[in-house]
Design brief:
Length: 143
């Protein structure tokens, strides 16, 4: 628990949220600035800025919550949906609230429908032959 953290205050009930799901270890509530209808934030109830700061049992429960809530959103909409699951992990990745959280952003699965939610675009590097294999080995050596 961090006194200055808005998501800790939501987790403790000190400030209100539009809660959709809760267990002993996680709470999920609607994002105040939704990228699409049903945009949910899922957070561990313990404070930590980044994924590496969150105990495994809390993190595991977050993933299960994302699954349950996505199924619930499909039930509410009465159809299959697609989702962006987004986790900004540190300021340079776009994290604004420094309590680890996952965005669950529903998207219409019908590609002909009006696009809702996040559009994910990225520029990509162009690795030379052998570079990816060498990099994968370096990463394996560090895990
Ligand atoms: P991020 O950029 O990943 O840190 O996203 C933080 C998200 O938290 C943004 O989408 C905000 O709209 C959302 N947010 C901030 N404060 C609240 C709040 N009190 N209740 C619900 N969502 C919030
Ligand atoms: Zn916090």
């Amino acid at each position: 628990m961090s006194d200055s953290c808005i998501f800790c205050k939501i987790a403790s009930g000190e400030i209100p949220s539009n809660k959709v799901y809760e267990t002993n270890k996680v709470i999920a509530f609607l994002d105040l600035n939704p990228a699409s209808e049903g945009h949910v934030l899922v957070i561990p109830k313990c404070h930590g800025q980044k994924i590496k700061d969150i105990p495994d049992d809390y993190l595991s429960e977050v993933i299960v919550a994302l699954k349950k809530i996505s199924i619930g959103l499909e039930k509410m909409k009465g159809k299959e949906l697609d989702f962006n699951i987004l986790q900004n992990n540190g300021a340079s990745s776009g994290q604004v609230v420094m309590h680890a959280h996952f965005h669950l952003i529903p998207k219409e699965s019908d590609p002909s429908s009006k696009e809702l939610g996040l559009k994910f675009t990225t520029s990509s590097l162009s690795p030379k032959e052998g570079e990816l294999a060498a990099l994968a080995q370096k990463i394996r050596d560090c895990i």
